[in-house]
Structures are given as C-alpha cells and as structure tokens.
Amino acid sequence: MNTAEHALLTEVFPHDARRDPRGVLVLGGAPVDQLIDEHGTPLYVFDEATLRAQCRAYAQPLVHEYPNSLALYASKAHLDPTIAGIVAAEGLGADAVSSGEIRVALAGGMPADRIVFHGNNKLPEEIEYALDVGVGRIVVDSLDELDLIAEIATERGGQPAPVILRITPGVEAHTHEYIRTGAIDSKFGLQLHSGAAEEAVAQAQAADSIDLTGLHAHIGSQVLDVEPYADSLDIVLDFADTMSERHGLVLRDISPGGGFGVSYSEADDPPAAGSFVEVIAETLRARRLESEPRLLIEPGRSIVARAGVALYRVGTIKEIPGVRTYVSVDGGMADNIRPALYGAQYRALIANRMPDGAEQLVTVAGRYCESGDVLLRDIELPALRRGDVLAVPAAGAYHMSMASNYNLVGRPATVLVRNGKALVTRPRETDADLMAAFAPVET
Ligand code: PLP
C-alpha cells in the first residue's frame, strides 16, 4: 500500500477501514466484495462505529466546555430512521427542515422536544404538524414567517410557539475564506443591518402566542477555520445585549449553527470537532452572562460524511488518445450531485483487489445523460478494468439526501455496517418501484 492510499484509508475513510489479506477493502468489519454480492452497486455503506464516534466527538467536549448544551444533528445531510435512532441514543437532537425530516427523525426514536425546525419557507401545514408533535423549537426565518407562526399558534390556543430567531450576522464563511461584512444578501434569516432582526424581536416579545427563547446564526458550510464562529457569535451576543435593554429579551438559547468542515481528501486538514466546540464555548463564557443560555450547535456533514462510502462498479472505459481516458461507473450525479453542483472534489480507490500497475490519469464519469456528470476529474488511479469496484470516501453527507431519479434510474441501496454485519437501511429502488410512482395511463 502506498503512502497516499494509507493516508486516504486512515484519514478519510471510516475508522478502521482496511484491506484484508486478499486486498479487498473492509468497512465496519465487512469485506466490500461480500457487501456488493449481497446488495449490488451502486451501494452506500455507512459505518455505525464512525457515526457514533463523530457524535461523541461533539458531545464529549461539550460536557466539559459547556454542559448546558445540545448538539443537533443536521438531518438534511443524511437521514433515515436507523441513523436518527443512533444519533438520539448518543444524546443528540436534530435539525429538520420539512415535515418529512421531522417524521423520519420521530420514527427513529428522536424525542420531539430535541427537534429544531428550520427553513425559509415552512408551509402552514408543516408548522401545524411541528406544533402538533411538540418540536422543541421553531427557527423563525423572516418577519413574514413570524406573523404566520403567531397566527397559527393564536388559532390553536394553548401554549405559545417556542421560537428562535435566525439572524444574518453579516459573516459568511466557506472553507478558508470568510467575509466580515458580506452575506446580507441571503434568502435565509433576519438581517441585522436592515433592522429586520430587531423588528422581529420586538414583534415576538409583544405576541402572546410566541415564546421567544433565543437567537441563531449559521455562517456557511465546509468551514475550515474556527475564528468565524467567534466573530459571528460575538455579533449575535452584542445584538442580544441590545435587545435585552430595548425589548426585554431573555436569551435562553443561543446557536452559532454548523458548517464545520470535513476531509474529502487526505490533503484537507479541518480543525477537530473539539476545537470548534472550544472556541464557541470560550466566546460564550467570556461574556460572563448573568443567566447562562443553552448552547445549540448544528454539526451536519461533520458527523455523517466520514461514516459513508459510495461503492460503484466500473463499466465502459474509453480512451481518447492525447485527450483523456473516461472510466464510467454505474452511479453518478443522481446519487452524488455535489461535483456537478459546486465542483466538489473527491478521492477514490480500487476496492475489490490490491491495486497493481502504474497509476494513470483518468476521469471517472457517471452513467447519467449529462456531460457534467463527472464524479472525479483528472484523478490518478491504478489501471482499472471493467468490473472493478471503486470506493469513494466521505460520501455520507449530501449524497443520498440529495439523490434523484434522473434518467428514471432507481436510487442506490444504503446499508449500515457493524461488526462485519450489514443492515439494509434503504432498499435499492427497482424499475418496478419507479413504475409504481406513476399514475396508470388512462385508456
Ligand atoms: N444548520 C443550518 C441552519 C444549516 O443551514 C446547515 C447547512 O447549510 C447546517 C446546520 C449544517 O451544515 P453542514 O452540514 O455543512 O455542517
């Protein structure tokens, strides 16, 4: 095994990923040739031990740094009832952005009061549903939505709706870049600069049907520095001080959101989960607030990305002399839209055998009828043959949760592996499943 492959296996693949003596990749104790014999390809494999370890990577430092806290798993990254159950058993709550996500979280055993309901356009029936099941908090995204929630809660009578306001703090961060004064042009949140945030606090405080518990801000995704969180939190806490003086706001919940970066390749070096927690807790403690608010953090991809691996079967290999070699696999943009959507880059390795021969520069294309359906552009891989299996790591977040039926191809199966055993968490969609989704032709 060369050093690049070793680094990929130990830093980007799930914990304990290795090759067996035959050279076959082993995930969660299960050799991938057995997994695909049984479940076919493309296959999404989730390693339970990695998922649990990532939950603890946040939960444990929080216990030391700021015990009055709750880490919320961002369901949109990837959710099924089994994973919701694991995350709940690890003591986490969940963010949800639709009644569907709330339903799946509840079905897996997530307590309703640990669910936080987000979204910039929650439908009235979704707000009703969230109040019916008793979600912990609803995050208000706009003045318009505040009116809607207040109206619905007034009509229902009973307890006021527990809400948090999403503030746009003017800090936007993506990977290593962040902008201190930008990001006021966002479809999410109540802008501080325009006065919308203050107006929302005033209205919420005045509404009998609303119980305003705190403030939230989310600054971006795949953030690889800790400082933007301190900056954004300070801005929100300054705002909270002013709102307490002007409108009597009592801050019971504070949330700096999520977006903590992960490794997609062995070259990435994101801060450890504990470093994000430390900076956030330290910023909060430094304010010496009279009554300590509960801290909510929302790690999404950084809990589940590393737990997931996509397995694809190699099909057509086409060499265009002097131009490039295309290696086509049996999945692509319908199960992983990220490369086509925002140029996300991945690594891969041959999973069914020990790599041999010199590496070659190839482009791994998906099977879908779109030129942009390229999973890995210009990647060095050992010579591939039809029938080989390619494993793409860091595939747990925003793959299957964004998957489609483009070209009317069924979505891949997902399995959860533990101690060498695989549990099917989502069966592969067949052509019959696709046909069943349509109304019959009227004759
Ligand atoms: N919280 C909120 C409000 C978000 O909008 C997002 C994603 O955009 C997340 C948490 C999770 O982000 P990520 O999966 O990038 O960590």
**Integer-rounded radius of gyration:** 23 Å
Largest sheet: 9 strands, mixed
Helix and strand composition category = alpha/beta
Helix fraction, binned, reads 25-40%
Q: How much of the sequence is in beta strands?
A: 25-35%
Distance between the termini: 61 Å
SS summary, helix count: 13
- Note the overall shape: globular
Care to count the β-strands? Answer: 23
Q: Which hetero compounds are present in the coordinates?
A: pyridoxal-5'-phosphate
Query: Segments where pLDDT lies below 50 for 5+ residues?
Result: none
Give average pLDDT, whole number.
95
Structure description:
It is a single chain. By secondary structure, the protein is of the alpha/beta class. It has 13 helices and 23 strands. The strands form four sheets. Strands 4, 16, 17, 18, 19, 20, 21, 22 and 23 form a nine-stranded mixed beta sheet that branches. An eight-stranded parallel barrel has the order 5-6-7-8-9-13-14-15, surrounded by seven helices. Helix 7 links the parallel strand 8 and strand 9 (161-168). It is globular and about 70 Å long. The termini are far apart. The mean pLDDT is 95. The structure holds pyridoxal-5'-phosphate (PLP). Residues 74, 77, 95, 118, 218, 221, 257-260, 298-302, 397 line the site of pyridoxal-5'-phosphate.
Using brief descriptors, characterize the structure shown:
about 450 residues; alpha/beta; nine-stranded mixed sheet; 13 helices; 23 strands; globular; binds pyridoxal-5'-phosphate
Short account of what is shown:
This protein is α/β, with parallel strands linked by helices and 443 residues long. It has 13 helices and 23 strands.
